[in-house]
Amino acid sequence: QMALWNLNPENSDNKPGILPLCIGMPVMIKKNIATELCLTNGAEGNVVGWKSSVLRMNNEDYPILNTLFIALKDTPFKVQIPGLPDNVVPISRSARPVLCEFPNGQLQRINRNQVDVILNFAMTDYASQGRTRPINVIDLTDCRTHFSYYTCFSRSASVKNTVIVGGFNPSIIQGGITGWLRQEFRELEMMDEIRNLREEGRYIASYSNR
After folding, report:
1. Which domain of life is it from (predicted)?
2. Are residues 45 and 148 in the same domain?
């Protein structure tokens, strides 16, 4: 049981066994819970409180999180729930099957009952897509492609507040593009040329079979 609880979120489908919490802790919601309340996958916020119970196991007491209260950030509209401050929402735990991977590679499927959030001190390039960071601290160590570099840098609101803490490899953005990407660009150019020919009335029907 302790081994399952102590697994990192990435080894348990982003449904962590243990959530270390404190007031002000930044968290990210990992499930579409209620879109009308801005409780969507990827929404960010800060912990403002929680309700818990106690689980007795092996003669020890373990706190079990029942409901987490989060102050949502950057919502498109004000969220108002009776009895709670503006933009503060409750998230209850929910159960779903989770495939866990142990450090030795062993896999085990369990049914985990947990609040669908993870700690949000940092995020991957994939998770950051579509966001703007007023202060953007970037670690490029595990970024393998120029797509990844572009995603990380383009999250910044300004050059002044962009910080690279390590891992910058110039060859990733200076070493040319891959063959499959060159092919995709060629195909896009061909489609653009065909469209231009059609608009000018010079399109040859036999092109459609190529």
Report:
1. Eukaryota
2. no
Which pLDDT score, from 0 to 100, does residue 206 have?
A: 61
Rounded to 5°, the CA angle 142-144-150 comes to 100
User: What span, in angstroms and rounded, lies between the C-alpha atoms of 148 and 82?
Assistant: 42
The rounded radius of gyration (Å) of the Cα atoms in the chain is 24
Q: Shortest CA distance to 165 belongs to which of 188, 194, 142?
A: 142
Q: What is the DSSP letter of 40?
A: -
* Whether 35 and 79 share a structural domain: yes
Tens-digit pLDDT profile for residues 144-196: 888 899 999 999 999 999 999 988 888 888 877 888 888 999 999 999 998 89
Neighbours of 16 (CB within 10 A): 24
Asked if 141 and 187 sit in the same domain, the reply is: no
169 and 191 both lie in a single domain: no
Domain that holds residue 197: 179-209
Handedness of CA 114, 119, 120, 123 (dihedral sign): negative
Inside any domain, residue 128:
no
Q: How many domains does the chain have?
A: 3
